[in-house]
Amino acid sequence: MSNFKKLSLFSIFKSKNKNNKDRSKITTQKLNDQLINHANANNFENNSKINDKKTFTQVQNLDKLQYNNINKKNFFNKLKVQLSKTRKIINFGINYIFSKKKIDHSVFETIEELLLTSDVGIHTTTKIMQYLTKEVYCNNIQEINPIYLMLKKKMYKFLKTVEIPLQINTYNPFIILVVGVNGAGKTTTIGKLAMKYKEEGKSVMLAAGDTFRAGAIEQLCLWGKDTKVPVVTQHFGADPASVIFDTIQSAQSKKIDIVIADTSGRLQNKEPLMNELKKIVKVTKKLNATGPHEIMLVIDGSSGQNVIRQIKLFNKFLKITGIVITKLDGTAKGGILFAIADMFSIPIRYIGVGEKKHDLYNFSSTEFVDALFLNNHIK
Ligand SMILES: Nc1nc2c(ncn2[C@@H]2O[C@H](COP(=O)(O)OP(=O)(O)OP(=O)(O)O)[C@@H](O)[C@H]2O)c(=O)[nH]1
């Protein structure tokens, strides 16, 4: 491809972006005007111009849209702050790259280094580097901006394949079995999920299946109290399969929408403990042949490349259907998500970014990549 063609492709990209921005400005302006009109109308009942159900619904919808836009912006800013550790690493490298006028060997070295230090891992980093070098040399790219965009697009593509939200309307009750190693954040994630689903208008019941760790039952009960969700418990040391069986039975009779079952943390290489999880699945099937409908593996995002081994072994024993990555607000370097997406085709359902009940987000590939890369490098 000639330099002219490359340049024009890049200009098209830039002007497309500009057009989109302009269009969204116009839409926001229009929306604001309508909302101001709506506010000026003061008394709905008495104003004959807008005392019409259709207009009222339209304005209500606009309110909702603007509310969602504001919420989305807040969420994105929050995510950006919480992923600051990885963003710093990536942008430090990117700043260096942008200090260069032309692409040279050191640019590739820097990108490789920043991917490795962000926990992307050797396997996925190699793939990304092969792609970048091929694109740059085959298309004779000499400018820095296209390489930045190619990197961002490639990383986005990895994540897009695993951005598959959990559909919970399919079975009643929808049974989620939560598994993972010790301290990954299972119980906390269950509390956050209970909150989330309740806010979406679903009824939820929790099974205190971690009967092994001291305090785990009480911890789940506290979450139950906080989120106003019933928790089924038995005594410390009880058979977890029996607790989960009781919970499903109770949920069936009470027509509860979602059952979320906690399990105790276990090392993926301890076979008897992994077999215990198989037993739980078997027992669940006695009450509901299609369940569990989600076997959710919770992994600690700050554990680095170690999580790859965890996923491999958990997936070997149980068929993991969804992943939650926690603690992305702490010392975690979010690069691990790219490795997970590249090496396993398991959907990433949610990400945990704090210890509070609202610190769980639906996983979005664009938002995650945008939160990691700062766009202000592109002039
Ligand atoms: N910063 C941060 N901390 C988290 C997050 N999720 C969980 N934690 C904390 O991690 C610690 C362990 O969380 P738990 O929910 O008890 O983990 P668990 O997997 O149930 O632990 P075991 O029952 O021992 O296997 C707690 O202190 C949580 O508050 C998160 O997204 N961010």
Automatic annotation (TrEMBL):
Keyword Signal: no
SMART domains documented for this protein: AAA (SM00382), SRP54 (SM00962), SRP54_N (SM00963)
Residues that hold GTP according to the record: 180-187, 262-266, 326-329
Reaction it catalyzes: GTP + H2O = GDP + phosphate + H(+)
Signal peptide: none
MF GO annotations: GTP binding; GTPase activity; signal recognition particle binding
Function in brief: Involved in targeting and insertion of nascent membrane proteins into the cytoplasmic membrane. Acts as a receptor for the complex formed by the signal recognition particle (SRP) and the ribosome-nascent chain (RNC). Interaction with SRP-RNC leads to the transfer of the RNC complex to the Sec translocase for insertion into the membrane, the hydrolysis of GTP by both Ffh and FtsY, and the dissociation of the SRP-FtsY complex into the individual components.
Record note on quaternary structure: Part of the signal recognition particle protein translocation system, which is composed of SRP and FtsY. SRP is a ribonucleoprotein composed of Ffh and a 4.5S RNA molecule.
Protein name as it appears in the record: Signal recognition particle receptor FtsY
